[in-house]
Amino acid sequence: KDLTELSVLTLNTSFYYKRINVKVALPQSSKPQEKEAEATCNTLMQDRKYYMECTIVRIMKARKVMKHNLLVEEVLKQTQSRFFPDVQFIKKNIEALIDKLYIQRTDQNDEYEYIS
């Protein structure tokens, strides 16, 4: 049976066991574990975001100008040792770096330029 907060437990005083200690398993609350898992997930996503931004800036600093497809390919190559990002995550971080003025789009829409 599953125990809930409304469960009633009674003590059997006539119970006898040869050993002195009897181990009773206590129910584990899942709420703190869920909060901890959510906090860990948020921290992991934040770390991945920073790592992705650093990787993109490092690549752009070395290449100065790069086409979108080549940049995505290079980012995938360099980040695969840590995690496998999806293309949407890479695009989102490129947009964030454009907003932060680390890179900019050139006259050709599919090309980026590093701003020094």
From TrEMBL:
GO biological process entries: ubiquitin-dependent protein catabolic process
Keyword Magnesium appears in the UniProt entry: no
A single cellular component GO annotation: cullin-RING ubiquitin ligase complex
Molecular function GO terms recorded: ubiquitin protein ligase binding
Annotated keywords: Isopeptide bond, Ubl conjugation
The Cullin neddylation domain, residue ranges: 44-111
One Pfam family linked to the record: Cullin_Nedd8
Record's protein name: Cullin protein neddylation domain-containing protein
Organism: Meloidogyne javanica
